Amino acid sequence: MVVYSHSRLQTFEQCPYKYKLKYIDKVPVEYRKTVEAFVGEIVHKVLEILFKRILETNQIIPKGELLKIYDMLWEEGWDSDILVNQPDKLPLYKFLGAKMISEYYNRNYPFNDLKTVAVETEEKIELIDGSKYHIKIDRLAKDKGNNFYVIDYKTNNRMKTHEEADKDRQLAMYSIWVLRNFPEANLIYLRWDMLKHNETVFSVRTKEQLKKLEKFVVSLIKDIESTTEFIPRPSYLCKWCVYKNICEYAKND
Ligand code: SF4
């Protein structure tokens, strides 16, 4: 059975033809990971290790040790096939990843404002129509007032605006899973930790808003499942589409 996800729905909304190439025809693509994506993966992994240790043993890994873990993961994971547009800047990328971890650590130490409940979840929920939806939360935490926090780490340059946060579907869908599994939750905050900026963006949804969102997602899934003609939707986004070299509809300007 298909398990829907934020990126699957987003792909369909962006371009139904791309959805077909990716999820139905499963057309293989030549893809080179970028150094930015590599840094993001390693930083996520380091924070996962940090909060998992706190969750399981209540111990805080000292910052120096954590940065050594970062170095080790970098060395283990680095592959010469990773795309670096300016190879002479590679040490800078490595430094920026370590800086994000270091500043995050300093800002949040001793990590006791919230209690971690789960890290890097790999869960599914069943929506009202029986469809399955993938839940992948970087870190789920709660405060003393039983308010829950669905936390997402972002390592990109662009700062998320409050307006974007209030419209975000990804974390809002995850909070439906939180609501079902932690009925004691009062408010569920959606929280983006913008690591490059060392800032946090919050949003919150009411139960009514979440019900409406679930209905919308279910209707979108119905649209996908009843679609027989996956019409291309060329846009400026073609520039980043992994199929642009094989797609006759790609917008190139
Ligand atoms: S290149 Fe553009 S039109 Fe073609 S599949 Fe990708 S997004 Fe769609």
What is the fold-level CATH name, i.e. the topology?
Lambda Exonuclease, Chain A
The largest sheet has its strands arranged as 2-5-6-7-8
Arithmetic mean of pLDDT = 95
Using the 3D structure, state the CATH architecture. Answer: Alpha-Beta Complex
Helix content: 40-55%
Tally of distinct domains: 1
The low-confidence parts are none
- Number of continuous helical runs: 8
Q: From the alpha carbons, calculate the radius of gyration and give it in angstroms.
A: 20 Å
The count of strands amounts to 8
Your description of this structure?
It is a single chain. This protein has 253 residues and is an alpha/beta fold. The protein has one domain: Lambda Exonuclease, Chain A (Alpha-Beta Complex), CATH 3.90.320. The protein is 45% helix and 15% strand. The chain has helices spanning 6-14, 16-24, 35-57, 63-77, 90-108, 162-167, 170-181, 207-226, and strands at 3-4, 115-119, 123-126, 132-135, 139-142, 148-154, 188-194, 199-204. Strands 2-5-6-7-8 form a five-stranded mixed β-sheet, sandwiched between helices. A hairpin with a 5-residue loop joins strand 3 (123-126) and strand 4. Helix 1 crosses helix 2, helix 3 (35-57) crosses helix 4 and helix 4 runs antiparallel to helix 5 (90-108). The longest helix has 23 residues, at 35-57. The protein is globular. The two termini are 39 Å apart. The relative contact order is 0.16. The model has no long low-confidence stretch (mean pLDDT 95). The structure holds iron/sulfur cluster. Residues 15, 17-18, 21, 232-234, 237-238, 241, 243-244, 247, 249-250 line the site of iron/sulfur cluster.
